[in-house]
Specification:
With 96 residues, this protein is mainly alpha-helical. The chain has two domains: 53 residues, Arc Repressor Mutant, subunit A, CATH 1.10.10; 34 residues.
């Protein structure tokens, strides 16, 4: 059985598609048939858009501002933890 290549849609395509659904111009089932996209995919796009609006569909490798801040804070915690551990070891060495 041959696998179909995964189709990739850009942000503007997804947003325009969701706007058609939200404005009630097209029903999800009808739009899914026309575009050859699964109905569940369109429901997911709609839910993501309604949840995040401007930050929806950040793209491959991109993060939402909240995710970026979380990643940055995790890195800072890692650095501070390493610095603390180094200071503990130095304290142990110098106190002997």
């Amino acid at each position: 059985m041959e696998k179909k290549p995964k189709r990739v849609f850009d942000k503007s395509f997804k947003i325009n598609t969701v706007k058609l659904i939200i404005s009630k111009e097209k029903k999800i089932a009808e739009l899914a048939r026309e575009l050859g996209i699964n109905e569940n995919t369109l429901h997911n796009w709609k839910n993501k858009y309604l949840k995040d609006m401007g930050d929806a569909f950040p793209g491959k490798g991109h993060q939402t501002p909240a995710e970026e801040e979380l990643t940055k804070l995790r890195r800072e915690i890692q650095v501070v933890t390493e610095e603390r551990d180094i200071l503990k070891k130095a304290l142990g060495i110098f106190s002997k």
